[in-house]
Amino acid sequence: MLSYWMQMSGDQATLEVREIPRPEPGPGQLLVRMHAAGLNRGEFIAGHGLHASGSAKAIGLEGAGEVAALGADVSGLRPGDRVMGRCPGAFAEYALMSAAEAIPVPATLSWPQAAVVPLTYQVAYDLLVLHGRVVPGEWVLVAGVSSGVGVAVLQMAKLLGARVIGTSGSADKLAQLQPLGLDAGLCTRGADFHAAVMAATGGAGVNLVVDNVGGSVFAESLRCMAFQGRLGMVGYVDGVLKAQIDLEALHAKRLTLFGVSNKMRTAQHKAADVPGFVADMVPAFSAGRIQPVVDSVFPFGQLGQAKAHMEANRHVGKIVLAMPASPNPAVVA
User: Fold this and answer.
1) How many whole angstroms separate alpha carbon 311 and alpha carbon 102?
2) What is the rounded CA–CA span in Å between residue 299 and residue 187?
3) How far apart, in whole angstroms, are the C-alpha atoms of residue 212 and residue 230?
4) Does residue 286 sit in the same domain as residue 304?
5) Which of 92, 171, 207, 301 could pair with 138 as two cysteines, CB 3.0-4.6 Å apart?
6) What is the pLDDT of residues 166-212, one digit of tens each?
7) Residue 177's domain is classified under what CATH number?
8) Residue-wise pLDDT tens digits, 238-296
9) How far apart are CA 211 and CA 142, in angstroms?
10) The dihedral of CA 71, 76, 78, 84: what is its sign?
11) CA 241/CA 4 separation, integer angstroms
């Protein structure tokens, strides 16, 4: 079968397609015939530490497809079922997925839409529900709102009854997000949005900050927080990994700072969040109350072009890689 691998050398990533044996599912695993997989910026950033320098590994973190085979101790699923889930090596014709993380694909979702739900929207759920504890009427500030996670947070926050302020360097992108319920769009890439945020919130500040950008806006984001506000760090596309913390504000306003990352989580940690997400959010996808925003779909042979499109920051929502229509036969090891 065909599978994408990435070689890391310093801060340079080299992509290549390899022909490898089709994997066999172990206990608690599914073999999934992949139809589509979502790109995630963090996988391609050396600073996120997902790849050791000098190493090569199969890439892709989330996707959707049909169950091809079941490992031992798997129940409730059968070959041919449509599933979506987080899975390593998703940029391939076949990939292994933990049955504990497999989510049935609602009939309302296309393969590209389903492919971007497992990681991106579960991160949004982690940010808003599990850690952010957002309730109706609260204000959420999303730094980098046009990113995949940013759009998912916007959609989910509106579903939860929150009001959303988003920053982006593109006025056109902000305009595209207005129909999704963006309450205030701030066109900026810099740390200069405090006054506008305070004006929008009547001087109260925001109850939750979602920082997709990084250290360059961290201090400004903290200034925008209301009493007992929360700040979730989810990415640092600016490459700035250090920032000052106003300890007086942290102390006096009883602020909470947290990170949302899967880097150090065990399989058990990740699987534990899935039932809540399925119960709370999958019905919204089924009913069309959340429709995953797919910016573009690239054919399997164009992962390099898809990565370049993402790094050019021209997209709104998620970029998807489509798998070959007819998979190659398994290669004998």
Assistant:
1) 29
2) 32
3) 14
4) yes
5) 207
6) 999 999 999 999 999 999 999 999 999 999 999 999 999 999 999 99
7) 3.90.180.10
8) 999 999 999 999 999 999 999 999 889 999 999 999 999 999 999 999 999 999 999 99
9) 6
10) negative
11) 29
Whole-number Å distance between alpha carbons of 228 and 298: 43
The answer to whether residues 218 and 285 belong to one domain is no
Same-domain check for residues 24 and 103: yes
Residue 312 φ then ψ, to 5° = -80, -5
Identify the residue whose tokens are 């066999």.
24
54-89 tens-digit pLDDT: 678 999 999 999 999 999 999 999 999 999 999 999
Q: What is the C-alpha to C-alpha distance for residues 155 and 175, in angstroms, rounded to an integer?
A: 15
User: How distant, in Å, are the alpha carbons of 178, 225, 228, 267 from that of 158?
Assistant: 12, 19, 21, 30
Question: Based on the structure, what is the number of domains in the chain?
Answer: 2
> CA 157 to CA 163: how far, in whole Å?
7
**Looking at the structure, do residues 148 and 103 belong to the same domain, yes or no?**
no
Q: Do residues 60 and 110 both lie within one domain?
A: yes
Answer yes or no: is 332 within a domain. no
The model's pLDDT over 111-143, given as tens digits with 9 standing for 90+, comes to 999 999 999 999 999 999 999 999 999 999 999
**pLDDT for the residue 71:** 97
Rounded Cα distance between 32 and 69, Å, is: 7
Residue 327 lies in a domain: no
Q: Do 104 and 140 belong to one domain?
A: no
In angstroms, what CA-CA distances link 56 with 8, 13, 29, 114, 324? 6, 10, 23, 27, 23
CB contact at 8 A, 311 and 292:
no
What DSSP element (H or E) covers 192? Answer: none
| pTM for the structure as a whole | 0.93
- What are the tokens at 251? 């102390």
Residue 269 and residue 250 share a domain = no
**Cα torsion through 41, 47, 49, 51, rounded to 10:** 70
